[in-house]
Design a protein that fits this description.
Number of helices: 13
Helix content: 40-55%
CATH topology: TIM Barrel
Number of strands: 10
Shape: globular
Largest sheet: 8 strands, parallel, barrel
Radius of gyration: 18 Å
Structural class: alpha/beta
CATH superfamily: Aldolase class I
Bound molecules: 1,3-dihydroxyacetonephosphate
Order of helices and strands: EEHEHEHEHEHHEHHHEHHEHEH
Number of domains: 1
Oligomer: single chain
């Protein structure tokens, strides 16, 4: 069995084949040691506090998250306190907010601040999701301010990036995604960057049932890690968890999670079904054990 890496270098792809089983094993072990494998569920604007509590409860009761892995629920802000209670004391479970406002506080009716999120006990926040960029016109300047505010309050950031279909069709997806990152989280210093998780979510794969192929995911994740390496060095690149998002479900998760530069998933639809989400965690845990 051989593993194929597509290494985008100077914009053209170069193929390197790692042939031996030993080499593959070494890569797996090395990766496991360096990075946390994360399965995160973005509930978007779904569930109520009552149904959300039931959903999270079913998941925490059904699975034990192994060392080196983390499971994160990102419910609507109204549920954070309740879901935080569900995960409290459950090892390697955590909560994330789906958004924060960039200001410390103020007259921003309907918004929530980083301080409010941190006070619920949530440890993470999603920033830069394509739905926020598209529907709420969040620019790089706004995203940078949000990232800084989150870090100031001790939150970790799951920073999302990803290209629309039109960009992929033109073959410009690598430069597009790398530009999204160089304008934002790659400006951080390596110390601050330690608190960043990157989620690659091709817009054409979100909620469409159409997933990136494992090779497409691996190519982009490699390119992202390469960009981190160039800007922030080896340590930052080897440590950062890069999640894939876009129609991840039990039927396709194994092939995607298996890729050497894929460190987990940011899951939408399938995270709303306890059975599916439990299965995704089991698939990830199983792969992690075999690595
Ligand atoms: P789906 O898994 O429903 O495609 O959503 C992905 C997503 O946007 C997660 O943030």
């Amino acid at each position: 069995m051989s593993y194929v890496y597509f290494i985008p270098k100077n914009r053209s792809a170069q193929t390197v084949t790692v042939r031996s089983y030993r080499e593959r094993q070494f890569l797996y072990l090395w990766r496991k040691k360096m990075r946390k494998f994360i399965v995160a569920g973005n509930w978007k604007m779904h569930t109520t506090v009552t149904s959300g509590r039931r959903l999270a409860g079913a998941v925490v009761e059904a699975v034990k998250v192994p060392k080196g892995m983390q499971v994160i629920f990102a419910p609507p802000a109204t549920h954070l306190t309740a879901i935080q209670k569900v995960v409290k004391g459950k090892k390697r479970f955590a909560c994330a907010a789906q958004n924060i406002h960039q200001a410390e506080s103020g007259a921003y009716t309907g918004e929530i601040s980083a301080a409010m999120v941190a006070d619920t006990g949530a440890s993470h926040v999603l920033i830069g999701h394509s739905e926020r960029r598209q529907y709420f016109k969040e620019t790089n300047a706004i995203l940078n301010a949000k990232v800084q505010r989150a870090l100031d309050h001790g939150l970790k950031v799951i920073f999302c990036c990803g290209e629309p279909l039109s960009v992929r069709e033109k073959g410009r997806h690598f430069s597009y995604v790398i530009r999204q990152l160089t304008a934002t989280v790659l400006k951080l210093d390596p110390k601050a960057f330690k608190r960043i998780v990157i989620a690659y979510e091709p817009i054409w794969a979100i909620g469409t049932g159409q997933t990136a192929s494992p090779e497409q995911a691996q190519d982009m994740h490699y390119a992202i890690r390469d960009a981190v390496r160039r800007r922030l060095g080896d340590k930052a690149a080897d440590r950062v968890s890069i999640l894939y998002g876009g129609s991840v479900k039990p039927a396709n998760a194994e092939e995607i999670f298996k890729q050497p530069d894929v460190d987990g998933g940011l899951v939408g639809g399938a995270s709303l079904r306890a059975g599916d989400f439990i299965e995704l965690i089991r698939i990830a845990a199983d792969l992690d054990k075999r690595r």
